[in-house]
C-alpha cells in the first residue's frame, strides 16, 4: 500500500470516528432535550407504589393524564374497577390513569405501600401506574397537587378526586369524587383531549 492510499484510509477512519462520536452525542443529549421540553406541571418524580423506584411524570409527556387520589377503604373504592376499564379502553389512544394513594380523608388508606399494591392488584387487577402514598391537601401537599389545585381552583375534598391534564400539560380540568370513571361528561372531556 502506498502512502497516498494509507493517507486516504486514515482520513476515512477519522471521518467515520467523527460521525460515530457525533451520533453518540445526539443520542446522549436527546434525553436531556426531552426533559427540557417536559411541561412544568409534569416535572415531578415519585416513588412507584410497587417497587419504590422513582419515576418521572415526564415519561408521559404528550399523553392525556387522569390523576386520581385513591384509598382502599372508601365508599368510592369500587371506582378502581372503572378506572382500570377506562385505562384499558383508552391507553392505545394516549390516556394514562395515574393513582396516588392518600390517607388524607377519613384515614381510609392506612396500609403500607406494599399492602396497597397487593390490594389494588388482587382486588381490582389494577394495571395503571400507581405511586407511593402521598399527601394531596394542606401545607404538606405534594407539589404536583399544589399545582393542580392552583390550575383548577379546586383541591380534592375526598378520595377519588380526578384531574384531567391535556397532552400539552397546560390545560387541567377537575372532577369531584362523585364523578365516576364512566361519567358522560368525563368521557366527553377525555375524548376531546385525546382528539388533539
Q: Brief overview, please?
A:
The chain is of the alpha+beta class and 196 residues long. The protein contains 5 helices and 6 strands; from the N terminus they run H-E-E-E-H-E-H-H-E-E-H.
Description of the structure:
Residues 18-195 form the Thioredoxin domain. The chain is an alpha+beta fold. The chain has 2 domains: 1-37; 40-194, 3-Layer(aba) Sandwich (Glutaredoxin). It has helices spanning 3-36, 79-90, 113-124, 143-152, 184-194; strands at residues 45-47, 54-56, 64-70, 95-101, 162-165, 172-175. The longest helix is centred in the N-terminal third of the chain and has 34 residues, at 3-36. The chain is globular. The chain starts with a helix and ends with a helix.
Describe the SSE topology.
Blueprint: H1 3-36, E1 45-47, E2 54-56, E3 64-70, H2 79-90, E4 95-101, H3 113-124, H4 143-152, E5 162-165, E6 172-175, H5 184-194
Parallel strand pairs: 3-4
Antiparallel strand pairs: 1-2, 3-5, 5-6
Amino acid at each position: 500500500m502506498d502512502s497516498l492510499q494509507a493517507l486516504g484510509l486514515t482520513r476515512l477512519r477519522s471521518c467515520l470516528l467523527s460521525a460515530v462520536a457525533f451520533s453518540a452525542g445526539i443520542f446522549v443529549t436527546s434525553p436531556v432535550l426531552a426533559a427540557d421540553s417536559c411541561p412544568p406541571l409534569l416535572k415531578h418524580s415519585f416513588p412507584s407504589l410497587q417497587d419504590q423506584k422513582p419515576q418521572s411524570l415526564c415519561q408521559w409527556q404528550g399523553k392525556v393524564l387522569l390523576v386520581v387520589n385513591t384509598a382502599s377503604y372508601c365508599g368510592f373504592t369500587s371506582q378502581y374497577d372503572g378506572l382500570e376499564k377506562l385505562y384499558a379502553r383508552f391507553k392505545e389512544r394516549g390516556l394514562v390513569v395515574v393513582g396516588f394513594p392518600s390517607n388524607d380523608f377519613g384515614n381510609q388508606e392506612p396500609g403500607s405501600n406494599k399492602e396497597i399494591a397487593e390490594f389494588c392488584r388482587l382486588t381490582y387487577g389494577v394495571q395503571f401506574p400507581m405511586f407511593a402514598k402521598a399527601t394531596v391537601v394542606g401545607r404538606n401537599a405534594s407539589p404536583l397537587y399544589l399545582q393542580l389545585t392552583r390550575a383548577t381552583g379546586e383541591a380534592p375534598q375526598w378520595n377519588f378526586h380526578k384531574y384531567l391534564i391535556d397532552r400539552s400539560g397546560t390545560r387541567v380540568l377537575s372532577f369531584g369524587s362523585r364523578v365516576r370513571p364512566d361519567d358522560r361528561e368525563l368521557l366527553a372531556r377525555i375524548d376531546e383531549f385525546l382528539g388533539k
